[in-house]
Design goal:
about 25% strand; Dihydrodipicolinate Reductase, domain 2; Rossmann fold; alpha/beta; 14 helices; about 425 residues; 11-stranded mixed beta sheet
Length: about 425
């Protein structure tokens, strides 16, 4: 059978890994796909030829649109990242009748609805397994392996940089800024780490997972996003004293009011498996009504782990080249005409428990005043610790856990607590999820 010809857009970390896997495992891949898969063309403005296998058989240019427009290419693999020109390249490939594989979570989260509609009209496939959690096959699990289930919720550690930082803070008591600098030196974090530490990268991925789980359009603009830059070593310590770990979670849940879609630091019980996922590793916990909780763990980034997912998509696309487009697995798990208009809940409507830390003057009545404000707002305290003041200090940390409460009520209570003359500065708030 005629080989499938692939055009790579990008020969960086993931592009180079993809080429190496396709060349190194060519025989095994052909056995699985039913035909040979060859990288014949690639586009890259800058790349290191050293370490790239089979590059002598690839025609490399610096014009990605030339690859996309090449009539000999069957599958375009977009690995340049970002919003533009990735969007234009993918849409041009689709218009040219080519199948697309991408690892670009930002592109899918923001422009996926447009891209999938265009692909549907042209009868081509857009595969994106590598866009979420690197080498972990979570897209395939949601779209196919768990297709029998009514998905109830998903909670995931889906950014390795943030998880590395929180792990170092927990294990070594280090400050956020100190660990971030090391993460940048190690190559885990970019020079501008905003996407990682402020939750934007995780929000891109969570947007995709929510769409696959609940059959809703991609709605990145409605995802609540909060980063980890305000987490202090003392918060990590206090959380452990209560029996919790702090993780930067992406959480999406089906509720009577709609779909929760949120990324933020979260206290989770230390006995949960996901609480013990450390370093740069990723993990996604999915709760289905039939299967119960399932956990997917592995490398969320890196050359070969991500290439593993990219090549798996290339194999899947190759298998379906002769399939009637109407009988392929839908891009977002549900048939295009069956996507739901269930709304995404505003953050004010989310119900969760809370960890609160404040600096209070060490004098009688302060705790009573804080407890009174919480009681007025309908908030019940589960546990509380008042630390001893250091010698010569008049202010002490006051730490507490609450029972479940709606975010709107907590916002009102925190505003009143911060207005007390006996409370200095802002109240630190971290949401708590038991993940039962």
């Amino acid at each position: 059978m005629k080989p499938v010809k692939v055009g790579l857009l990008g020969l960086g970390t993931v592009g180079g890994g993809t080429l190496n896997v396709l060349v190194r495992n060519a025989a095994e891949i052909a056995r699985r796909a039913g035909r040979e898969i060859l990288v014949t063309h690639a586009a890259a403005r800058e790349y290191r030829a050293e370490g790239l296998e089979g590059l002598d058989k690839v025609e490399v240019c610096d014009d990605a649109f030339a690859v996309v427009d090449n009539p000999d290419i069957d599958i375009v693999v977009e690995l340049i990242g970002g919003y533009s020109p990735a969007r234009e390249l993918v849409l041009r490939a689709i218009e040219n009748g080519k199948h697309v594989v991408t690892a670009n979570k930002a592109l899918i989260a923001l422009h996926g609805n447009e891209i999938f509609e265009a692909a549907q009209k042209k009868g081509v496939t857009v595969a994106f397994e590598a866009a979420v959690a690197g080498g972990i096959p979570i897209i395939k699990a949601l779209r196919e392996g768990l297709a029998a289930n009514h998905i109830e919720w998903i909670a995931g550690i889906i950014n390795g940089t943030g998880n590395f930082i929180l792990t170092e803070m927990k294990d070594k008591g280090r400050d956020f800024a100190d660990v971030l600098a090391e993460a940048q030196a190690l190559g885990y974090a970019e020079a501008d780490p905003t996407f990682d530490v402020e939750g934007i990268d995780a929000a891109h991925k969570l947007t995709i997972l929510a769409s696959l789980a609940f059959g809703i359009p991609l709605q990145f603009d409605k995802c609540y996003t909060e980063g980890i830059s305000r987490i202090q070593p003392q918060d990590v310590t206090y959380a452990e004293q209560f029996g919790y770990r702090i993780k930067h979670l992406g959480i999406t849940r089906r509720t009577e009011r709609g779909i929760e879609l949120r990324v933020h630091p979260t206290l989770i019980p230390e006995r949960r498996l996901i609480a013990n996922v450390d370093g740069v590793m990723n993990a996604v916990l999915v709760k289905g009504d039939a299967v119960g909780p399932t956990l997917y763990y592995g490398a969320g980034a890196g050359s070969l782990p991500t290439a593993s997912a990219v090549v798996a998509d290339i194999i899947d696309v190759t298998r379906t080249l002769t399939t009637d487009p109407e009988n392929r697995v839908p891009h977002l798990a549900f048939q295009p005409g069956e996507l739901s208009d269930v709304p995404v809940c505003p953050m004010d409507d989310v119900v969760t428990a809370y960890y609160l830390r404040m600096t209070a003057v060490d004098r009688p009545g302060v705790v009573a005043a804080v407890a009174g404000i919480l009681s007025e707002a309908g908030i019940s305290i589960e546990a509380m610790q008042q630390k001893q003041p250091a010698e010569g200090e008049v202010e002490v940390p006051l730490v507490m856990l609450t029972h479940l409460v709606r975010e709107r009520q907590m916002n009102v209570a925190i505003e009143k607590i911060e207005a007390l003359d006996s409370v200095a500065g802002e109240v630190t708030r971290i949401r708590v999820e038991r993940l039962k």
